[in-house]
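Morning F.,

Quick status update on the modeling queue. The single chain you submitted on Monday has been processed. Sequence for confirmation:
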Amino acid sequence: MRSLLADIGGTYARFAVLCDDELGPIHRLDVRAFPGFGPALRCLLENHPEMPSIDAAILAVAGPVEQCVCRLTNSPWVIDATELKREFGFATVRLVNDLEAVGMSLPHLRPDEFHLLGPNRSREEQPIAVLSPGTGLGMACRLPSGRVVASEGGHATLAAGSDREAALIGALRRRYGHVSMERVLSGDGLVNLYREIATLDARECAARTAPEITAAALSGSCPISREAVDTFCAFLGAVAGDVALFFGARGGVFIGGGIVPGIVGHLERTQFRRRFEAKGRFQAYVAAIPAMVVLRPDPAFLGLTVLAGVDSRRCRDRVDG
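Structure tokens below.
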């Protein structure tokens, strides 16, 4: 049995072939370089003839899946399982939300593959939450039964924790109308914070991408970038604490995605944990819950191997090998 595994986000799509429980190398394509998923997959297969013929596909997609179709939230791609079976001859195609795949990986992470923030007092047989700021903001919850429930919580309305944050949200509301959590807790969200901070304070600022803002903040070369990153971390703590309450995630809250692992050392020095715990009468409840930053690259592939039916005791070796 040869299965195509893929983690498809708004910026990059990653592919690997699982053959006889052995996972091949992971290949990456830029989503923006292709008009749709079909042309991207065809390009991949044509440029990697060493890939064996494929019987099935399990695709982790960054968007809601409805009736075997996903319209990516932060890309114009539409992925239709029925069309893929017809075009590529796959016997089966399974679409899952990308955070479902990440959630499946969580029990298989080694201690050196996440960074602990808060008490090391996670409770067994309790829900585990995960949120991933990247191109967008994904959320999911892993239940004690092993089932992972994905959500679109990243599009819930963002709340302010200070007058400064309220002013920033007000500026964003004038620009976008609705201000979701994703409007600040994503790559574009970091750019939004940087721009609106400069506007509120009537300060000049050079145009910067999210990685450039992060680099300038960590180097101390740009006060606006530093405030943007610190505000991002404060909002992240508040939202992660909210997610802990939403799901009753006393097993812990994991934070993945492409942004936070690169700033984890700085995150510890920000208001992240204070805001995580600042939940009024439920402060003690949340204070006992650990937050953990996922350091492992591509955890979705670890989860995809589990979804593909590889024995959980062996799935780590298959992905790491």
